Hints:
- Two copies of one chain form a homodimer.
- Chain A is α/β, with parallel strands linked by helices.
- Chain A folds into two domains: 8-50 and 155-317, Rossmann fold (3-Layer(aba) Sandwich); 55-146, Rossmann fold, CATH 3.40.50.1100.
- Helices cover 44% and strands 16% of the residues of chain A.
- Chain A has helices at 8-14, 31-37, 55-68, 81-92, 107-115, 127-141, 152-165, 183-195, 211-218, 241-250, 259-273, 283-290, 292-295, 311-317, and strands at residues 27-29, 40-45, 73-77, 96-102, 119-123, 144-146, 174-178, 200-206, 253-257, 299-304.
- In chain A, the strands form two sheets. The first copy, chain A, has a six-stranded mixed beta sheet, sandwiched between helices.
- In chain A, α3 (55-68) runs parallel beside α4 (81-92) and α4 packs parallel to α5 (107-115).
- The first copy, chain A, is globular and about 55 Å long.
- The first copy, chain A, starts with 7 loop residues before the first helix and ends in a 9-residue tail after the last helix.
- The relative contact order of chain A is 0.16.
- The A-B interface holds A 21, 24-32, 35, 43, 45, 47-50, 52, 112, 115-116, 270-271, 274-276, 307-309, 311-312, 315, 320-322, 324-325 and B 21, 24-32, 35, 43, 45, 47-50, 52, 112, 115-116, 270-271, 274-276, 307-309, 311-312, 315, 320-322, 324-325.
- Chains A, B: Keywords: Lyase, Pyridoxal phosphate.
- Chains A, B: One of its GO terms (molecular function) is threonine deaminase activity.
- Chains A, B: Its cofactor is pyridoxal 5'-phosphate.
- Chains A, B: It comes from Actinomadura darangshiensis.
Amino acid sequence: MPDTRLDLDRIRAARRVIDPVFLDTPLFRCEALGRALGCAVSIKLETANPVRSFKGRGTELVASGLSEQGRTAAVCASAGNLGWALGWSGRRRGLETTVVASRRAPAAKLDRIRALGAVLELVDGDFDMARERAASMARQRGVRLVEDSLDIETCEGAATIGLELTRRPPDFDTVLIALGGGAMATGVGHVLKSLAPEVEVICVQPHGAPAMTRSWHERRVVTTDSTDTIADGVAGRHPIPAVLDDLLKVADDAVLVQEASIVTGMRMLMEHAGLIVEPSAALGVAAVLEDPGRFAGRHLVTIICGSNVNLDDYHRWGAGRPATSP
Amino acid sequence: MPDTRLDLDRIRAARRVIDPVFLDTPLFRCEALGRALGCAVSIKLETANPVRSFKGRGTELVASGLSEQGRTAAVCASAGNLGWALGWSGRRRGLETTVVASRRAPAAKLDRIRALGAVLELVDGDFDMARERAASMARQRGVRLVEDSLDIETCEGAATIGLELTRRPPDFDTVLIALGGGAMATGVGHVLKSLAPEVEVICVQPHGAPAMTRSWHERRVVTTDSTDTIADGVAGRHPIPAVLDDLLKVADDAVLVQEASIVTGMRMLMEHAGLIVEPSAALGVAAVLEDPGRFAGRHLVTIICGSNVNLDDYHRWGAGRPATSP
Lengths: 326, 326
């Protein structure tokens, strides 16, 4: 049992709080994708819910806790998915939710946050600048700042994915997890290392946003000055020390992938699995594409963590084009 | 309780036979699609499984029954989905599966049937010609002919979708069901009319393959000479009398939609729900598009029955193009 901020009993209890629409998501073998990648591939699909990402698992815990405390408002910084999910969970419980996002975030994600009735504040700059602005707003107004990966509920919510993966003795040997702030990686990783320690936990991040991966390899917080990746959902520059500590205890490896591999991964998920995914959700496939020898003959699970992608971007990147077409 | 060939106890028992990977599929509100259509829309997603359609529910029952009887082979005619599902269920139980398909069936579907180790026989002509050829092969070889919609297991398998829709008191008032041979419509319809009779059951078929819809309206079997639709999964010319009898007892309406509406429906499902679907799965959305006044303000469920589509076709039809692009 790794000694992290996470706790199995709390994660199990979380299942009773989270709206069932986010739980017990599909887990299935995709033979066509496996043939194309030279290994067995199972997909854990986190996109078939009202907010099209796994983030609802965590925001349900956050919003439920706030509601029990009689709080009426929350603010978060978000590249889109956390904001949409917090807006959804907050609306159900009568919370006023303010989401601070980069003006560069996908328009489709921002529109959906507005449609929930959440207040949307846009900042010029990247995710970390949105995080600073959200923090100062929360201080000024005295409302709860929801911080992805730092707030334990966001990790515990993601960790319920791990419970579902280990419900039966795993027939897979590897789980590939998109790495951004680290909520999903530490949450799922904690459960896997507790209940199925033989399964290899591999985190995947873009070369264009490598801060947490570099930090994991150097065993200390490494920040970067900028990010440059289409995978907006995992593009942070300032790893959170407590999250890095946990990640060091539950991840077996952390790898970086090229943008071109992410696009090819998106295209393969469309072609072989019929799935439209956002770039972050293709990181696992990208990792296999860049190191096929490592994964040959193995049975891996890749968590398809979100499908919130601007379709114009998707087509501009070439993700929507069948590989067989010119 | 409608007096059909179906029986609730048998449908409930079917859940214990069907591989869990096909059961308890996602059911979730898609607010973006609802806003675009002027009503509340929930999606029942039948594509997140190893064969990317709902057909595995039925073929699990068929193959399990054959296996219990000590049979070693089965043959079916299929536009693709039944064949893939029967091949999958048969392989698990050591059955030799032969699938007879039209040479016009999508190449991607045919490749996946071959990859399962099933024997694939192609005929020049449409689905009904494949059906005749499969029947004669089964007679000659003395093996079980699996007939979609006629064989009660195919209806009972689909009917388990109905159990999942009615697990809690429905908050929807309408279910839109793609109508082809009638297995899904009679199966789901039977459960709805038994457990939630106030819910309107509306079947949707393309104008280009209208035989069952015309039969339902005329209350007698009406056949057509040909079919002309991109919705290959529902393109039959010869309704089965016993299935029509059941459909008359469980469907509240049966409507026909244009090809252009099917393509727009596919595009909307991509744009607003992030789902790649095959044409049959867009019939429900197409029905709303053609009669928005009828559905305004209602809460409908549309069953996304399959995502097996040739991506070249998908793009050629224009289904992959965002509506906002030129």
